[in-house]
Design brief:
The chain is an alpha/beta fold. Helices cover about 35% and strands about 25% of the residues. The chain is built from eleven helices and eleven strands. The strands form two sheets. Strands 1, 4, 5, 6, 7, 8, 9, 10 and 11 form a nine-stranded mixed β-sheet that branches. Strands 2-3 form a two-stranded antiparallel ribbon. Helix 4 packs across helix 10. The protein is globular and about 60 Å long.
Amino acid sequence: MQKTLHAALVALLLGCFAASGVWARCADYVPQPKPQNTARDVVGADLDTIRERGFITFAVYEDFPPWSYEQDGKPVGVDIDLGRLIAADLGVEARFKLVAAGETLEADLRNWVWKGPVVSGSVANVMLHVPYDSDFACRVEQVVFTGQYNVEEIAIAYRKSAYPEDPPVPAYFRFDTVAVENDSISDFYLSSFPGGQLVGNVRRYPTMAAAMTGLAQGETKAAMGARAQIEHGLTPELAMHTPPLPGFSVGNWTVGVAVHFAYRPLAYAVDDAIVAAIADGRLERIFADHGLTFHPPELR
């Protein structure tokens, strides 16, 4: 998972938005500048324009299996299939921008939703796989956050032979090795809990896919990361569970989409397409096609 998503999830899961439990939602936010005098090809397109031209563009994260990545030179993954589903519902073609993550989620939203990158390129009409938090959403006025389509959480994978009776919990990693993606939310959590006692047994890998490969090859006894990425890397010798994690302020989070604030009819249409796909089972089938368990948010 990219560092942008790590930063967002650190905020969402470890309570950097904890002020919402003390003060009214967004009571202390400072209004942000709206983009002005910006070329139309940079700021996006409305729903009518998208339908007239016959295609819609989606920003998705690169090298992010099972969500979005390249295979044989073509984009594949759950988010790619979801984009095609949305496009079909709108009666247009789906086109994808596989983008690198910036330093923060705000930077990605600025680059790919409401302003455009500094060097070259333009925004997409819709950005997929955006972690949702209501307090964060009200502070980023240039973006409409909608279309929530999955509930994610942290999971632990483990070698069945190493734990034939009880699946491991974080306390086990005082003695046992555990694989994580470097600088991920799991890395952050295990390195700081409890009081750094687990640091010596944390094995860091460049990606979660590499961490799961290391686990499968016996380099560690367990691995910790986002459930879908864990599930994507399971083999017959491995199992997975989602135990309680002491110290997390939020046990799970939703992911959805982001659309430029000026194009609310587009946001509504995308949200309607996602809600319909959840209700009639099409989105669950997409997850099943990728070997994943679907955990939908509550329908609005």
